[in-house]
Amino acid sequence: MSLQNLVGISLETVEPNAQQVRSLLAAADRNIADAHLTGLSEENQFDAAYKAIMQLAMLGLIANGYRPLTSKPGHHQTAIQTLALTVQWPSQKIWPLDALRKQRNLTDYSGDLVTQAAVDSCLTNAMALRGHVHAWLLAQRPDWLA
After folding, report:
1. N or C, where is the chain less crowded by C-beta within 10 Å?
2. Cβ neighbours of residue 136 under 8 Å, at least 6 residues apart?
3. Model confidence at 75, in pLDDT bands (50, 70, 90)?
4. SS3 124
5. pTM of the full predicted structure?
6. Long-range contact pairs involving 111-119 (C-beta distance under 8 Å, separation at least 24)
């Protein structure tokens, strides 16, 4: 699979945008910081950490000249599952992120409670992805971090 193969199915092409990449990285940083706030409920901590994961996944797509077709279902899944192609996130680390996506859907659409273990997993994965994305940007587009 290539990103180009997904154009028209689940992705569209866009101009890579350094400012948007920086904005998404900053937003992910804010959400990771929010997920650390102990005064928040587990649900809100989880939401903040998950939002950071999605912002980092979107950053990868934007940096490569793509974005999900949000008019079609599954754009969160597409963004997560393309991380191996966009920022070379190891394939074996995608499945835990996809499990977190499913947990988020259960929480949002069924009202399921979020456990502290789920919060910890989501936050750990968000921070690991953030570090990886930053390293990828340093290697691929250091000028975009200025």
Report:
1. C
2. 60, 87, 88
3. confident
4. helix
5. 0.92
6. 113/42, 113/43, 114/41, 114/42, 114/43, 114/45, 114/46, 115/42, 116/42, 118/42, 118/46, 119/35, 119/42, 119/45, 119/46, 119/49
